[in-house]
Amino acid sequence: MSLNVELLESSFSQIKEQRTDFTTCFYNNLFVDYPEVKPLFAQTQMEEQPKKLFKSLVLIVESLRQPDVLTNALKGLGSRHIDYGVLPEHYLVVGNTILKALAICLEDAWTLEVEQAWSEAYSVVMKLMLEGAKEAEARVL
Ligand code: HEM
């Protein structure tokens, strides 16, 4: 499966124009729809976290044409998420919430094709982050 890079880039350029709305929408929905993940963020500086999340999404979209860069960045990010108490099942709730926030922000531009492109991209991101997490755990054991 190859990702629809053009569609991911063009739809994300629209999100970049409303980054604060996007991240506010993401965290609001995450905590309302999945209150069980709230404790993971108990010590987190919630002023900074949305900016960090957005920066990493920018990096991901900018690296779609450089698989090595993407793989390294995501494996590293995934291994750090073990320290934050993140479990594999949490990736599904974050994926649902990213897609929901994209849908809300993109409005009419959220077509079936765009939805499919992001859903496939998130699966790849999740897979690489979980691989990084698994490798980091294996190094500790
Ligand atoms: C696409 C998937 C994800 C991306 C791009 C992402 C991005 C980030 C980034 C950039 C940070 C800042 C720290 C660092 O760079 O290591 C971070 C921290 C964090 N993320 Fe994620 N994350 C993702 C998935 C998740 C999931 C599934 C959860 C679980 C609900 C989660 C919970 C957290 C928590 C608790 C922190 C720590 C904040 C702190 O206290 O410093 N993230 N994430």
Description:
- There is one protein chain.
- This protein has 6 helices and no strands.
- The protein is mainly alpha-helical.
- The protein has one domain (5-140): Globins (Globin-like, Orthogonal Bundle).
- Helix 1 (5-16) crosses helix 6 and helix 2 (19-33) packs across helix 5.
- The longest helix is centred in the last third of the chain and has 29 residues, at 112-140.
- It is globular, with a radius of gyration of 15 Å.
- The protein binds protoporphyrin IX containing FE.
- Protoporphyrin IX containing FE binds next to helix 3, helix 4 and helix 5.
Question: Hey, roughly how much beta strand do the residues contain?
Answer: under 5%
Largest β sheet strand count, sense and barrel closure: none
* Dominant shape: globular
Range of helix content: over 70%
| Number of DSSP E strands | 0
Tags for this model:
141 residues, mainly alpha, Globin-like, 75% helix, binds protoporphyrin IX containing FE, Globin/Proto, oxygen binding, FAD binding, Globin-like_sf
Give the SSE layout:
Layout: H1 5-16, H2 19-33, H3 49-62, H4 67-83, H5 88-106, H6 112-140
Helix pairs in contact: 1-6, 2-3, 2-5, 4-6, 5-6
The chain binds protoporphyrin IX containing FE.
Protoporphyrin IX containing FE (HEM) binds next to α3, α4 and α5.
Domain Globin: 1-134
GO molecular function: FAD binding; heme binding; metal ion binding; nitric oxide dioxygenase NAD(P)H activity; oxygen binding; oxygen carrier activity
Protein name: Flavohemoprotein
